[in-house]
Amino acid sequence: MSGMRARQSMTFPSFQRAALRALAALTMLLATSVRSNYVFDEDPFQPVTQDETVAVGGVVTLTCSVKENDNSSLQWSNTAQQTLYFGEKRALRDNRIQLVKSTATELIITIADVQLSDDGEYTCSIFTMPVRTARATVTVLGVPGKPVITGFEDAVQEGGKVTLTCTSSGSKPPAKLHWFRDEEELPGRPDVVESNPDEPTYTVTSELTLTVTRNDNNALIACAVDHPSIANGDKKTEQPLSVLFSPSVSIQPESDLPREGEKFYLQCVGNGNPEPTTFVWQRKEGGLPPLAKEDGAFLRFESLNKSDNGVYECQADNGIGVGDVSHTLLVQEAGVNAADPTAMSTSSGVDHAVIGGVVAVIVFIMLCLLIVLGRYLIRHKGTYLTHEAKGSDDAPDADTAIINAEGGHSGVDDKKEYFI
Length: 420
Description:
3 helices; disordered N terminus; 5-stranded mixed sheet; alpha+beta; 27 strands; elongated
């Protein structure tokens, strides 16, 4: 019994050693596998390719190369695994496919006039032992068609809303649509994308809703396609917008200086959509003058006179609304040269000069009179008489001198004093 326990104790370590050896062998196997994959990645016989993107109708170039070759041939195959070129030998009768270069380490071919059916994975193979392959994905872009805008069939009245629809078909991947008014980009609704049933392309639709004003009349509304197969602006459709609005009116006189006796007219100019066709003339002070005649947008005067002066009003109607405006007519005297705009100002200037000269002469004369009158008044205001008689110095006393002065003396001259 004790011997059996001893054998069991000796057998268990040997089992552990066997398990350890198996684990070590598995580890070495995994290490060898990893090392072999690494060597495979660095395999000089492994073909190298790259993916390509091309638009429908374009040309794509497929290049396959290896670092080394053991006299094995390179081969290109299409998406259906049909051989296109084996070395320099054509295998598929398709004139769109041409050989560019064939050496022991490189095989280059081109496919012209690419179609959507050419989209997919192409395989380059080298027939070594074992055969090595590499794949290149060719992405064919479906070129979107020129966008079509609908919704312009009827003109829109000012203040109303219009909904425009833009559609472009044939894009792959789906194109993006953008709206513009002249050069300003407008926000439209999100694009709606639908698959085309017979080919791997898409139809994209976008809508734009606008509240229009008269400033939008004849504005260019554009829809542009954004897609990697085309340059920006290559696919763009423009359409002018038509907005109906009432006319704005102005009156243009034949001359700025109408004068008596001349023929003359006032023209009523209306700007609306549509253009106004009905015009009505009237004078605010009463009826039109006898010699004034309405002629559509014109009010004609056969011979102007002062009685034609007044405020004239024109109303223009285009069926959408009515616009009106007024103009004041002032007829000049016949002596004023209407052909010379400076005649009136020159005549007025001469009159002012004459009046100014007369006023200056009058002021000068008044100043002279004031000076003479002043000197006269000053001279007479300073003169007075003294009754001091001669000989008063001989009077015995003051009372006698006064009596003598009061009595006066004949032959005695008045004494005068002057203060100047």
